[in-house]
Amino acid sequence: MRLRAIRESGLMDGDPQRVPDGDARSGDRATYRALVRDAVHDAIAVLLPVACSGCGRADRAVCTECRSALAPEPRRIERAGLAIWAGLEYAGVAASVLGAFKDGARTDAASALVPALRASLRSALAGVSTGSPVEVCTIPSTPAARRARGYVPVDVLLKRCGIRPTAVLALARERLDQAGLDADARRRNAAGGLVARGRRPSTGRESWSVDAAGVRLQGRRFLLVDDIVTTGSTLAEAVRAIAAAGGETAAIAVLAETPRRLPERAAISRETLRDFAAQGGYGGMTGVVDPPFRTG
């Protein structure tokens, strides 16, 4: 997907239904499908009431009040030495909805999360120079996570944005769930876990090994996308794997950032978080609250 195509699509101008690299008719069809989908959801909510994934009240998948709480607030953050754009803070309603969507099978909440991801993508792309194509790529999920969920959360959201990511990364080995690990453990767990995608051995079985020999990405630029960032270890590993194959990570965008929280007894402002983190005072029991869902 070329950067120019992305910028000329609804992703950059706020039109929620335009599909990158598509024509006007594609946008019209997407708009029509969205209207039909909303009408169906309204009808289902009347016949088969559902609980809002944000507050739990009987309503649509995400009630009006919770949708308002998910209004995009794109911000540039830094994790693991990387500049990252995030559309939301993983807290409050956003934490409830994202957790339900990611590990509660609440795919009906996806539409409420799309605006924040789109805002993050637009912000990230705004700082990318024109020129060679920019491809969207994501962090691969583990086979276990795919089986447990039945879908890949970030791919569902990107599809709603009209984007089909390039499968450029693959798992090099099995890794632990990042949730519950402190910052050092996350770095160790992520290190060496990804490679540029090569041709998978045709064994007919899932395999952790990927034949990456000869995979070269020279001249290719990527917009790296993930659903949530905590310490940034996994994103840093993805950047390393792309660079090792000769590619360039032009920008990074995530749906939400997990805030680095100080212990309740620490009466100091959020502006001190950088120093606090530098001293190792986040992660595990001392600070950041890990997302209560499966990672990868």
From TrEMBL:
Give positions of region: Disordered.
1-26
Domain Phosphoribosyltransferase residues, every copy = 217-265
The alphabetized UniProt keywords are: Glycosyltransferase, Transferase
Q: Where is the composition biased (Basic and acidic residues)?
A: 15-26
- Entry keyword annotation includes Lipoprotein: no
Recorded GO MF terms: glycosyltransferase activity
- CDD domains, per database record: PRTases_typeI
Check the record and name the Pfam families matching this protein: Pribosyltran
In terms of PANTHER family, this protein maps to: DNA UTILIZATION PROTEIN YHGH (PTHR47505)
Q: Which family does it belong to?
A: Belongs to the ComF/GntX family.
Quote the protein name from its UniProt record.
Phosphoribosyltransferase
Which source organism does the UniProt entry give? Agromyces badenianii
